[in-house]
Design goal:
Length: 343
Amino acid sequence: MIVGHYDKAPGYATRRPGGSPSWLLLWTEAGAGVVTQGGASFEVGAGDLAVLGAGEAQHYRVAPGAGRWRFWWVHFQPRASWTGRLAPYARGGGCHLVAGVPGTVHERIDLAFQRALRDARWTPDASPSARPSAGPSAGPSAGPSAGSSAGSSAGSSAGSGDPPPAGSAVPGSATGSATGSAVPGSAARAGGAARVPAVVVGGAARELVMGAVEEVLVLATATVRPGGGRGEEGDERVRRVLAIIAAEPGAPHSVASLARAVALSPSRLAHLFAEETGQTPMRAVRRARVRHAAGLLEVTDLDVGQVAAASGFVSPFHFSRAFRKEYGLPPRDYRARLRPPPA
C-alpha cells in the first residue's frame, strides 16, 4: 500500500501500458483530471472518487483546460467486500466512478485521508513525540512534515509526479512512468503543507490505513446514487443484476436466471450488461465469487475445498484456477500471505 496527495499543474500525466499490480483510488479535491483505463474514459472533478482495478492499461492526467488537479491517491489490494460495494459504479475496463459526492461529507473524507497518511508510518512502539505531528486535530490543511524520517523512507515519489504502483520500490519504474512537469517543490503541496507519499510497511499500519480507505468508500457510495452524478443514470436493470450478484455470489447464477430477475431476455441482458460494465454477466459472477472466496480465506479457517463450495465453484480445481487468474497466486498462498503462522 502507498498513500499520498498531489497538487499537479497542466502537463502532469501518468501512463501504465501494462496496468498496475494494485488497485488505485483517486479522490479529487480541486481542479480536474481525465482517467482512461481499458475501454473507459471519463473526467473527474472536485467531489469525484475514481477506483481503478489492477491489470488494465491506464492513463490519467490533468484535464485539458484545467489549471490544476489536486487529489489524494492510494494504491491498495481491496478487501473482498469492497468490490460488491463498488460494483454498481462500474464504468468498464475495471474502472469505477462515484461522481458528485455531496459536499457535506468532503471534510470527513479529507480527514480520513489525513489519518491514512499519518497511520501509514505508525508502529505500535512509537512514542507520541516520534510520530508525525499531522492528524485530524491539525485541521484540513495538515500533513506530515517533509523533513521527517518517515517521509524520507517513502523515497522521492512526490517529486516524480507519479503515484507508484504498490510493490514497486520507487516511482517511475517499468510498471509506471510519468510525463510532464510536477508542481514546483520537492513534495506535492496542499494548503501550504508538504505531504510526502508514504509506503505502508507494518501489519498494524496496513490495517489502520485499510480502515481509513474503507471509510472513504462507505462515505462516498452511501451518499451517491449508483449511476447518478453528472447526469449519468445508467440502466436500473443492470444495477439490479449487480446488486443480486453482490448479495449472494455463491448462488447458482446463470445469464438466464439473472435475466428473469429483471424481466429481460438473456440476450438483451447480456448486451445491456456489457454496454454498462464492459464485461459479461458471468464474468461479473466469477469475479464476485473469487472475491467472496478471498474474504473467507482472510477471516475463516475453512479449507480450500470448503471455501470453493461456499463461493459457488463446482470444484477446488476450477476455484484455484479462477483465483490465481484474479489475484496472481493460489488460494493457499493468498491465505498464508495474509495470515502467516505464529512464530
